[in-house]
Specification:
The structure is a homodimer.
Chain A (H helix, E strand, L loop, with lengths): L2 H12 L3 E5 L8 H4 L5 H19 L5 E5 L1 H4 L2 H17 L3 E8 L3 H12 L9 E4 L5 H14 L2 E7 L6 H4 L9 H12 L12 E5 L4 H10 L5 E3 L9 H4 L10 E5 L1 H4 L1 H5 L3 H20 L5
Parallel strand pairs in A: 1-2, 1-8, 2-3, 3-4, 4-5, 5-6, 6-7, 7-8
């Protein structure tokens, strides 16, 4: 069964399209863990311990995690080892793993990124990688080739969640389309050969919850493109704003939340992993109350 | 003295705007080095040895190296350690170091990438980082802030060297500009506070040698933007095609060559590092014959 179908079936089984964003930075750790950090190696150790406890605590209530590679690259090789171990641990616990790297390059070099994250010899158990399509089709082709060869997936940036995203993405083209609409059309084309039984492709799009008008427009234009939806929580997006990303069967996207889950203990009190689980349970209720039943 | 001025002075002193692209992959290594590779750790070891010998051999004839991070990420944490050691070694040998990562993300996350590559605690001695501006100004601001704080630089993708680059980048906007022209204007704005004595900013643009009409157009539009020019050699660009990137004083860009230098021994014979040096000497002659004297 194609990756995207397995992912959707897990979302349906859990009635939860939540993705826990493991954008773990030292500031998010409890004081007693922060105190143990003296260098990059000890930072990576404490972040890995934190991530594992979070994964243990949430793996039966959410289908997926998104690991923000920038948070690990900060610590050099030690950080990358922590990223790999986090991805592999999440995979062992049955979670779908999205590596958020927004990688991009010209063809042959893009192929090395594809090998790094999606290839058979990849050092990390990643299902989906985020990519940036500014270079056009030949910069994405090596990624989609690897998706076909190894049953992996992508999320390409289309309409990002940040305040300045419209600066380039919402510019109108001569043909009447906006840049993000045009990019959305490219993503649909890139994923055309990886569409599964639910009508969605393993090549999806990043569409921010913080721009509901654009998100609704994209859902209508791109019925076969699955969305990775950042921006819920700390960035200002909520369930009502992102409801438009989902189809009549309550499918079509996965919603990321990072700080709202990792730092829930700062609001709820108690152990960070217990608070994270509670935040996931609350988010499941919030999303399912708003989106409705997932699956026919 | 601002980074971009120091870089330009070194280019003038050497009369050579060449950047050696350390896109080192196993296939580029001599057979006897390839034979020693059994896993990621030994691959990283052999690549590091190759890079060091290349650096030793070229560091008095070229001003800079560009390290393609994708080639190192393929080997996981061991590869990243090799990337760091390569950057640090090149820096020790007096070379300007461009990390080619095309990184991009929303504001706070972009800040982590900025810390990773340009910050005071960075694990690698990088001068310039390549970035992708699809997310707009708030995704670039953390990088430019770090450039100001730590005297570092950027090269943002404007018109890339790959065949599909026009697919998005050459689209015409409603206002008559193309997407790449608009992006070029953003880059100029992002670098406005980092312009040095030669009139160029430490925030530059990636402009491929393979698209001379667009390159000439950008040089005219963006007199204060320094160009990182990929595409010379294996990708089909030559000195005549990229001459338009340079101003009347023979300044305005640095030209990358990867395979043509790293694999020169396959054509010229002899030791790979001697052939690489010869290829750099030949490239210096080719560029200076075409561009003319660099500096007033």
């Amino acid at each position: 069964m194609l990756l995207i179908d397995r992912f959707i079936e897990k979302i349906i089984a859990m009635q939860n399209p939540t993705c826990v964003g493991l954008d773990t930075i030292v500031d998010y750790l409890p004081a007693e863990m922060q105190e143990k950090i003296t260098d990059n190696t000890t930072a990576a150790e404490q972040i890995l311990e934190f991530n594992k406890k979070i994964i243990d605590s949430v793996c039966d209530v959410v289908p997926s995690v998104k690991i923000q590679i920038a948070c690990y690259e900060m610590y050099g090789a030690a950080g990358i080892a922590c990223f790999e171990q986090t991805a592999n641990y999440a995979k062992e616990k049955g979670l779908f793993v999205i590596a958020d790297g927004k990688r991009n390059d010209i063809g042959n070099t893009a192929g090395f990124y594809a090998q790094a994250f999606l290839g058979k010899k990849a050092t990390c158990a990643v299902d989906f990688l985020t990519v940036n399509g500014y270079l056009g089709t030949d910069g994405i082709a090596p990624f989609t080739a690897e998706c076909k060869a190894s049953d992996k997936g992508l999320f390409a940036l289309v309409k990002t969640s940040n305040p300045s995203s419209g600066e380039l993405q919402n510019l109108k083209l001569e043909n009447g389309q906006t840049v993000y609409e045009y990019m959305g059309g490219l993503v649909e084309k890139w994923g055309a050969e990886l569409v599964g039984a639910y009508g969605y492709s393993s090549v999806g799009a990043v569409v921010g919850a913080t721009h509901p008008a654009e998100a609704a427009n994209l859902r209508q234009r791109l019925p076969g493109v699955f969305f990775l939806i950042p921006g819920y929580g700390a960035q200002g997006g909520n369930a009502e704003m992102l409801k438009c990303c989902f189809d009549k069967n309550g499918l079509g996207g996965v919603v990321n939340n990072s700080r709202g889950i990792l730092c829930a203990y700062k609001k709820l009190g108690g152990a960070y992993y217990d608070a994270a689980r509670q935040a996931c349970v609350d988010m499941q209720k919030d999303l399912s109350d708003t989106i409705g039943k997932m699956g026919k």
